[in-house]
Amino acid sequence: MLKKSKxxxxxxxxxxxxxxxxxxxxxxxKQLEIFTWWASGGEAAGLEGMTxxxxxxxxKTPFINATVAGAAGVNAKGVLVSRMQAGNPxxxxxxxxxxxxxxxxxxxxxxxxxxxxxxxxxxxIFPKDLVKTLTTNGKIYSVPVNxxxxxVLWWNxxxxxxxxxxxxxxxxxxxxxxxxxxxxxxxxxxALAGNGDWAIAHxxxxxxxxxMGPDKFNGLWTGKTKWSGPEVAKxxxxxxxxxxxxxxxxxxxxxxAGKLVTTGKAGFFIMGDWASSxxxxxxxxxxxxxxxxxxxxxNGIYQWLSDSFTLPKGxxxxxxxxxxxxxxxxxAGQDAxxxxxxxxxxxxxxxxALYDSYLQAAMKSWKKDRLxxxxxxxxxxxxxGMAAYNSxxxxxxxxxxxDKKGFAKAxxxxxxxxxxS
Amino acid sequence: MKVKxxxxxxxxxxxxxxxxxxxxxxxxxxxxxxxxxxxxxxxxTNSYTEDVKYVGFINYVELWQDPEFTHALSNLLKFTxxxxxxxxxxxxxxxxxxxxxxxxxxxxRSTYLYPMAISFIAMGTSWRWLMDSARDADAxxxxxxxxxxxxxxLQSDWYTSExxxxxxxxxxxxxxxxxxxxxxxxxxxxxxxxDLREAARVDGASEFKISRHILFPQLSPxxxxxxxxxxxxxxxxxxxxxxxxxxxxxxxxxxxYMWQVIFDFQNYAKGAAIAIVILLMIAVAVxxxxxxxxxxxxxxx
Lengths: 421, 301
Fold this sequence. Notes:
The structure holds two protein chains of two kinds. By secondary structure, chain A is α/β, with parallel strands linked by helices.
């Protein structure tokens, strides 16, 4: 017995020596309860990387992962909302960075974290545009751990060759021309994932950006650019034309729609860059089995989304929560998480050598591109606006893309839903 | 000894026996209904309302101006109509076939009942594959089957087309529930004494006439029970549709919209109002039935 405790003491001492963080602040808390919906694949592997880092820094604080698996966080969000309302929050929870947090912020359920941004130097090491987007009334409520890009065009080089397409289209019009070429050789012009509406809304988000440019696009979410105006009408026309080139199965999830591209049954695919890590996990090779370009017409614009962690008010183990957030924003934490998740680090000093060629290119763009938020993934609007936006797109899609005026009206109603929530 | 016996037989003894369940019902059923009703009359339309107060029926009025609510409501009514008619017809036909006491009746009975044993989510996933809207060379599931039997022209978008979504959505529901309806009807048929049919046969009635004038009139209580059961299942349908199409606009029904309003929008007042609307719709179907049952029981006493 005595021997055992001695060994433990030596280890504990060693851990203290190894620890680089200022005297492990979570030591006083019994545990850390973290709430995520990362339960499988690259997400779970990336989370484990961060967990290891947390355990190294806080060896005495057991890590409890209250994962609620399934449906891209749909189930988890339900559980989380009930827990927050009941005043029984986890010590930290996962949420998209941006407006998606607004309902928690307005309810006063999450703490201001700007003190961490100062003490950890994140306000300097994260891109300025991003910090600006995250800040509301001088306060920041979450720590982003990763950045995904949503305006990415994916295609299969072999299928493109068959259709006589040699380079990525540079505009929406050029993309329509290329989709017609695909159609001529019996390949659907674009892969569409209709199940649950959000992937079609994701496509529309890109079309809006590509057809009106970033300034007018940003105006849409505040009401500065009118949903009833000519710019939106033009984008809707483009969307209708693009949808007409889609696959006949209207109920696919995005991995199945992606498979249409990698197997040469569909030409283009507008999807976030998580598609790349999904395909690599299926054993496909970037460059030969599939390749990418910035969404046509959005070169030099980085439409981003980010997973982040928060500090709920009234968390039982507040110090442990803060210790976790420090890991989330640290170089070691982000570089442990992101190569596995298939995203890039938020920090501009992350090490490119750890990432694959797509992600390295994305890191370069992240530093110099114009940054614009993704709507479908929580940056521009809160949950109410997002759900209304998805429904509007879903109605347009299932109605055969005919009722353009009704679509614009429903989008305007989505803005109001956002403003009233 | 005698005193003790009397105490056991006093009416209070029975009351204390059922008291726990009365309390549980009062809290978890009627209490929660009351809570929901109160919520629906207040102004908690987001997660951060601090000045909570009663606002009357505003939330209900606003529901009728919300195109998504009316869309979900009309979807639900379409689903209910097709689902109930489909189940009644197929259940009745199956029970008529089995009622004759054919060979292997037990086998058919349990085969028809099997779909009931499958969870809605598992069923939703497989019907989602079956009702895939891909056509011709890409077709799988039902569209593929239609091609193989030479009915390629009938290939359909199933639940992904705006006009036909709820008709397609009721297919799996009918598939699941018609066996149950058959069992109910079969029990009803078996409850009719044989002498009645024999008497009719002696009087020279045809089999059709026996069904029409002897059997069906006696089935009307069963018929009513079936309608009530199907009706309330249909009004609160959620998991089947969520399993097939998640939150897709095209197949949205009230229960899915309610869930979305509460958890996505965090608009508690509006969500509660939708819940009350669903409850009222079920009540409209169930309460006349309860009155009817009470009356017949009184009459039989």
